[in-house]
Specification:
With 127 residues, the chain is mostly beta strands. The protein contains no helices and eleven strands.
Amino acid sequence: QVQLAESGGGLVQAGGSLRLSCAASGRTSSTYAMGWFRQAPGKEREFVAALSWIGGSTDYADSVKGRFTISRDNAKNTMLLQMNSLKPEDTAVYYCATQPVSRRFYSRTDYSAYDYWGQGTQVTVSS
């Protein structure tokens, strides 16, 4: 199994920045990629960004392109999400998740590609 722990959420004013972290532990050797999703109250969970563990390719939702950057700290087995120019519509609970090798042909933007999920961290952007 894989354990994921998000951190770094909080309250920030519009235009501000936050950096989210997702620490992975356990059987991470079968990880193909990792991703961030978010869910706002009353809305479905939506894709934010993903990073391939092999090759380092990235995907971003159109709504965050140019503002968010996904990266990896190899030494700490941690995935990061740098969020700049935050908007009130970015308010949501942010979840990290792992895509296993067995689902590598799934689209990384689809939540069904992921097997393990963290508990989530709240991000609130005030106007």
